Amino acid sequence: MISSNLIREKTAQLVEELTDIRHHLHQHPELSFHEKETAAYISNLLTSWGIDHQTGIAGHGIVGVIKGQNSEKITIALRADMDALPITEVNEVSYKSMNVGTMHACGHDVHMTCLLGAIKLLNSLKADFNGSVKFIFQPAEESIPGGAKPMIAEGVLKNPLVEMILGQHVFPEIEAGKIGLKSGVYMASSDEINLTIRGKGGHGAIPDKINDTVLAMAQIIVSMQQIVSRKIPARIPAVLSFGKVIANGAHNVIPSEVIVKGTFRTFDEEWRAAAHQIIKDIAHHTAEAFGVTCEVVIDKGYPVVVNDPVETGLVREAAVEFLGEENVVDLDIRTTAEDFGYFLQEVPGCFYRLGTGNQALNIASNLHTNTFDIDEKALETGTGLMTWLALQRLL
Description:
Layout: H1 4-12, H2 15-27, H3 36-48, E1 54-57, E2 61-67, E3 75-81, H4 108-124, E4 132-138, H5 148-153, E5 164-175, E6 179-181, E7 184-187, E8 191-198, E9 202-203, H6 213-231, E10 238-246, E11 253-254, E12 257-266, H7 269-289, E13 293-300, E14 305-307, H8 309-323, E15 328-330, H9 340-346, E16 349-357, H10 377-392
Parallel strand pairs: 3-4, 3-5, 5-16, 6-15
Antiparallel strand pairs: 1-2, 2-4, 6-16, 7-14, 8-12, 8-13, 9-11, 10-12
């Protein structure tokens, strides 16, 4: 009989190894679509543990299956992402990133470590459970178009057919030793908005002889704010933000071209499609009023992350048993995005948060910052819980 106490004991025995794995991964981060050495490291570990797997899936992805008794009974999947961010780490720690300008500032080193730990534990217990566990190491979560969609296209959810999937993500806002959950709609879709405004530029002192692309740009940005304030149904949250404007003129030169880049996020796929058309209409009509043109390119990014209510309920029950009710936290929706949403469009599952913060130790930096780090107690929690959650569907 596999008990929660047994999993806790076995996980505790792995802590030193898990810490070493995390430190290696943290020291050697690689950007999206370039995870070659990361994949090689993971593959070598799996091989040394005697675990069959496939490499080179959708770039540098890795997939394998641990078969228990009656392996065709059910197949569940566990996923971890692999890529890092273009950030220079400033933490002065022994495992500081050795790749200047690249950092695991979103905790993917933790995700990989916990999945590796869960794989090792599950492989040691395969004689005691029924069904199969498919493990997925996914490249390129941080950059659109992401790695989830091409991995799905290459069949990672088939042969054997996956019936449920789990993913976990670090969360510094929760103390280490805890997790967070949100049933149903959890994370936003994410689209990149690219505007190119063109007109007759010229001397800023004679505006009657030119088309003011800069003024047109300003009005387009202001007008688009009505999409969130006036166009969207009140029940649907949304964010439209513009973070980059290139108007390469001078004090007295109006450029003939202005480039604007922004992001649009929401929680409803139908409204998302409608909003894309409104963005285009506002841009084109406002540009026309100023005598300029506006080219609109919307790079459609990740879908809304929707946790299956039934699976999330089961995860909650198992997590309470493993961690204690006081360590399972309810979460609100987040306007950040995740390509795990693609997996959840194909099979039911749950994407939950792993607490990594420790206020007493001043480990509290946000994700995507150059001071991000974790309380490594989270490695034990993340590995043990992922293993326990998997086993709940297999025992």
